[in-house]
Amino acid sequence: MQSVSSIGFNWQIGARREGRRLVLLPQGLMTDDSGTTVAQWPAAQSNSHTVKQWLAAAGLFPTKWINLLFSVGGIQMEDDRIVLDAFIPADPSKDPVYKLAASALKDSSSGSKLMAEPLYEDDYVLVMNKPAGMPVHASRPGERGTLDEAAALHLLKRGDPLPVRHIHRLDNETSGLVLYSKNELAQQRLDEAMRNKAIDRRYVAFVQGRLARRSGIIDAPIGRDRHHSMKRRAGAGGDPAVTHYEVLEQYGSAALVSVRLETGRTHQIRVHMSHTGHPLVGDSLYGGSTRLLAHQALHGERLLFTHPLYGGQVEVVSPRPDWFEPIRRALAST
Q1: Helix orientation angle between 184-195 and 63-71, rounded to the nearest 10 degrees
Q2: Of 171, 219, 225, 283, which residue is the catalytic one?
Q3: Catalytic residue list contains 33
Q4: CA–CA separation, 54 vs 114, rounded Å?
Q5: Tens digits of per-residue pLDDT, 14-54?
Q6: At what angle do helices 96-106 and 147-157 cross, to 10 degrees?
Q7: Residue of 167, 154, 162, 5 lying closest to 85 (CA atoms)
Q8: DSSP state of 38
Q9: What is the pLDDT of residue 70?
């Protein structure tokens, strides 16, 4: 798995995980980047209300998360250490996804079908590499073979069944990176980052035709297609959607493009490229030819996000999938 690259901490946090607890240590929490004292560290054995007030004043964590911890008795002071009940495990006997994962763990034939691997992991986040053809989440109760189940199975094998939750999604037939949170703090911060468009997602795709411009921005609202329940369409009345693209390689009648999303609408890349007259190779739903590939030629290859605890930048890059190079060679020869 890849290692974290951390840049520009706002706080040098003296913190470590001890089982289900996040332990904050006095060192490193007293000053900001300029060396100015932020708040006096709570006295040893301070009560939980005092510690809660200190945490709020220091601004280290979301107020919503601090209040949630306080409401369930999850904030304590042990000597001069602040102890937060931050890593509450899921109950594999009750959590629906973990129940499926536990079943897969017992059934080797089921587990072998969950062919998805983690590319980055720490105590707060998990990045899974999804193959084409695997849904991220179940579309009906009890559905097997999802990326969510694969993520839960991975944590179950490690003996650390934290409540893993996907932060964004990919279409079933799109391969690539999917970001997961592993506790409530990470989920709150990563959900907020998604809302604020602060998670950078990059894709590569093979599209049909010759593009007139080497790069461009597609700004076209996307909504449901009233004539086809499975499709989306670009046009007035939809939700705002913005896609940036750059041509990496131009072939005779197709191109390899890099794509960056500002928004995350359903089928956004597929709809926008088709809208411009350049449907994805293999995307029959939006006008692409399936001669070379039976699914859309789209791969999520890069994620860049701010770590939910430390504040540094984490970049994860996915290797290109097995179907990628054969398509590239075939298109380059035309």
Answers
A1: 150
A2: 171
A3: no
A4: 45
A5: 789 999 999 998 865 545 555 544 567 888 989 999 999 99
A6: 70
A7: 162
A8: -
A9: 97
